[in-house]
Amino acid sequence: MISPTPADLAAIWLSLRLATVTTVLLLLIGTPIAWWLARTRSWWKGPLGAVVALPLVLPPTVLGFYLLLLLGPEGMVGRFTQWAGLGLLPFTFPGLVVASVLYSMPFVVQPIQNAFEAIGEKPLEAAATLRATPLDAFFSVAVPLARPGFITAAILGFAHTVGEFGVVLMIGGNIPEQTRVASVQIYDHVEALEYAQAHWLAGGMVVFSFLVLLALYTLNSRAHRR
Amino acid sequence: MSPFIKALLLCAAALPGLVRADAVQVAVAANFSAPARLLAADFEKDTGHKAVLIFGSTGQFYAQIKNGAPFDVFLAADETTPARLEQEGNAAAGSRFTYATGRLVLWSAKPGYVDDKGEVLKKGQFRHVSIANPKLAPYGAAAIETLNSLKLLDAVQPRFVQAENIAQAYQFIATGNAELGFVALAQVMKDSKLAAGSAWIVPANRHQPIRQDAALLARGVGKPAATAWLGYLKGTKAQAIIKSFGYEI
Question: DSSP state, A141?
């Protein structure tokens, strides 16, 4: 009977931490972007929307390669982080978070944007006639109405980060307990022909993810019915 | 006859032309892709047969071959995987041979950073050393052996960044994110010269030889193009090409 090695468990724990941090950050960053994209009539709506969707275009390892260039000692961002005293991001956990936030951005922004767009002007205008400030209307009207969008966004952002492989492989450097996430660990097992270990880890990830998604969807549909 | 049926028949008639009887399907370890392209072109000129190259990692090829991938010949990045395939009946017995022996090099993208004796490793003024995953890549295992024989493994290990293969190990260094690292001589050599940066060619006695073995796969048995390709690889002309890329035979 094959059981998980400490390295496998460390990789799973790291994946969960990365996905949680990434999802929380993406909800914080993605919500204002989605709000702006949903409401604006500015000429910039098209270009910004396209930029948010861009990470879908490049193969992940290629995206990872360009991030490596950008965040590296010769890259624009790398020079800035060094200048700011933050050091270099590649091969660190914060580097993985930055890469994952960029890579999973469209999966979070688009569902929220769609939900905001579906609300339309009327509920917000009604709130304004009741003297709600724009901020109050946003939190008391728009966010509750867009709840399903937020839940979808959180699920997609989390799941996509857990399953992400190419980008973390390039930016992470596969350092145990720092950047070696579960998807990389599974790949290592498969490449090393340790199929039993790979099956265990992959099976565990699939079952775990299924249970988390099931719980979220069930909760969401129950909340809807109420 | 309707035009649609006609078009279908035309396609059916063209199919045998696509599946060429005189072509050999070669699964090539990614680190050997540049020499393999040159060899395939020369092979086609010499024999009239065509070598169709498929690039990938050795572990991935193993899984694909076990599950019926249509490859005739396997040029692996190690010697254990072809041996295992032969043992398990997926490769022809006695067909294995070493087509190239890799040389390990300690390389930096910065000129003058690595001295020609590798003393830079002892000074330890670097943050990251890039190596290929020693569990998967023979070059990674050779790097560990080298550091071990230099008695530097414990000092250097905390600074490892591990790549899945030597192509990625090279990218970590080329982009400047790792100051230096262990890669294949074939990656940094061009026309028998160092293409960029600085390097220490690790003496061959510091590690087990990095033998890359070829094998005739079960599907290629009896195919004239497959036999011709293996014969061509053993010839002096092919060996000269392989050597010009920084390999030994």
Answer: I
Domain holding A80: CATH number?
Answer: 1.10.3720.10
B172 close contact with A: CB closer than 8 A:
yes
B30 versus A146: which is more confidently predicted? A146
Helices (H), ranges, chain B: 3-18, 33-47, 58-66, 80-87, 120-123, 138-149, 153-156, 166-174, 185-188, 224-234, 236-244
Cα–Cα distance list, A14 to A11, A65, A171 (Å) = 5, 22, 15
Residues of A in contact with B163 (CB under 8 A): 173-174
* pLDDT tens digit sequence for B172-200: 999 999 999 999 998 888 777 788 899 99
Could B161 and A74 be called an inter-chain contact, meaning their C-beta atoms sit closer than 8 Å?
no
Of A69, A74, A190, the CB nearest to B63: A190
CA-wise closest residue to A91 among B56, B181, B177: B177
Q: Which residues of chain A have pLDDT under 50?
A: none
Chain B CB within 8 Å of residue A69 CB: yes
CATH code for the part of the protein at B21-101+210-244? 3.40.190.10
CATH for B104-201 is 3.40.190.10
Using a CB–CB cutoff of 8 Å, tell me whether B190 touches chain A. no
Q: Give the gap in angstroms from C-alpha B85 to the nearest C-alpha of chain A.
A: 12
ipTM for the predicted complex comes to: 0.73
Domain presence at residue A64: yes
Nearest chain B alpha carbon to A61: B168
Average pLDDT over residues B36-43: 92
Query: What's the 3-state SS for B36-92?
Result: HHHHHHHHHHHHCCEEEEEEECHHHHHHHHHCCCCCCEEECCCCHHHHHHHHCCCEC
What six digits make up the tokens of B170?
Answer: 């090279």
Q: Are B163 and B183 in contact (CB under 8 A)?
A: no
The residue extents of the domains of chain B are 21-101+210-244, 104-201
**pLDDT score at B165:** 85
The region that residue A120 occupies, defined by phi over 0 for left and psi between -120 and 50 for alpha, beta otherwise, is left
Q: Number of structural domains, chain A?
A: 1
The answer to whether the CB atoms of A173 and B164 lie below 8 A apart is no
pLDDT tens-digit series, residues B222-243: 999 999 999 999 999 999 999 9
pTM, entire model: 0.78
Name chain B contacts of A169, Cβ cutoff 8 Å. Answer: 164, 168
Tokens, residue B30: 């990614």
Task: Determine the 3-state secondary structure of B199 from DSSP.
Answer: strand
Find, among A22, A195, A31, A14, the residue nearest to A104 by Cα: A22
Show Cβ contacts of residue A149 under 8 Å, excluding neighbours closer than 6 positions: A111, A112, A113, A114, A115, A116, A118
